[in-house]
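With this grant's support, we have settled on a layout for protein records. An illustrative entry appears below exactly as we store it:
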Amino acid sequence: MNSRQGRRLQRLRILSQFLFLVLFFYLLVRLAEGGATRPSWAGFFFYIDPLFLWLGLLVRPFLRVFLLALVPLLLTLILGRFFCGWVCPFGALHQFFTWLGPRPPKKAAVERPELRLKYLLLIVLLTASLFSVQLLGWLDPIALLTRSGATVILPGANALLQRALEAGPEPLYALGRRLLLFVSQRTSIQAIAIGSIFLVLLLLNLRRRRFFCNTLCPLGALYGVLAKFSLLRLAVNDACVKCNACAGHCTFYGSPYKDYMKSECVLCCNCLADCPTAAIDLRFGLPGRGRRPAIDLGRRRLLGAAGLGLVAAALPLSSPERKARVRSFLRPPGALAEEDFLEKCLRCGACMQACPTNALQPAVLQAGLEGLWTPVLVPASGYCEYECHRCTQVCPTRALARLTLEEKKQFKIGTAVIDRSSCYTYADGYNCAVCEEHCPVPEKAIRFREVEVANFRGRLKKVKQIYVVPDLCIGCGICETVCPRTDAPAIRVGAEEEQRGNPAG
């Protein structure tokens, strides 16, 4: 294949990456706008992810939409690791940052230990998932990019856009608001941590091309195993002069004549464009015996990775958070029982992106290490909007049961409790009706009773003290959010009497 044909394929690959990256962020933005009413579209990239097909097979009920992941698996057996080079939106970002980096010397090559690591990580994560400890979402590229996009990329871009428009002329600012170029600013309690991880992974491409894809990506490892048996392959013909120009822009610093690299090829087509003698061809054919050896992991490494997966599963299972009767955090409406929730949740952040009030935040260690980055409802950041059920509609694995709006309005997230030592109506003898006014429950879960109390001057005064009706309170958290005290809210929502799962069964 001559270099002109190679460059055409190269441009086609770049166009494909760009379109899939745009589609990814379009769907992510639509979540915030409430436009993704069909979960199948909102979770498109999750449903074509074979790692989550594996997860779906381990939990019940099985969601048939995950069978879409069979399509890229079957295409991998034909085309090789095309998904990594042509479809994966996270891979597209890595490819771009690789392009920004310096060109390495032609003889530079990825060492086998670096290629080996992602396969060992895949074994660790799959082994842990067999024991209901779900860690795939930590490193899966789709979950990682969704989480970073929801908590860092889109909020950061929105803030910069608002500042730029505010600093510009008034007509431009007014036009920006009219065209809805920005929305209410979101914040995240883990923006620095998640953003730092995301930025480091991107900047590592300046040192080593597609570092994450090459060394850490478990999805890339799965596709690499299957690519060993693919029908499409790169073949070197007699025109090859061993100039090694094909390695100049190769994603993995390899060459078509290095057999152990062939299962790593992501069909970037850079070698086809760079070869000066048209010595590289794309051919279809049955893989012969020994033609495409996989990276040799070794029996000891395989056993070691499986053992590490067992340890990764055992530690959370023995954690006290698993059996804790008292919890200091709230889950979103529709959340399954805690063990089932942790097993199904991808830590992807789709529910956080869909939440219009910024109430859902990625957990730090409230739910233990196993619950890292799972969604928790934080009234200090926002409240659960009474007329909204977006988060229950966009969860790709149904870790949040899909609730109708009426079911969600009845769903009990927790119960509000008054701190009488700081509430104005108790501690200071003042009348305050803010929480009662904002309570969205039609029957009002927060009410008044008139009592005679001594105020801070010692004089008797009739005050309407608030109280909570636990049976009516749904734990939405708006009372805590709007409490006028500036030191600490005088009413807090806890997980008391929390409801889990789908009320319909």
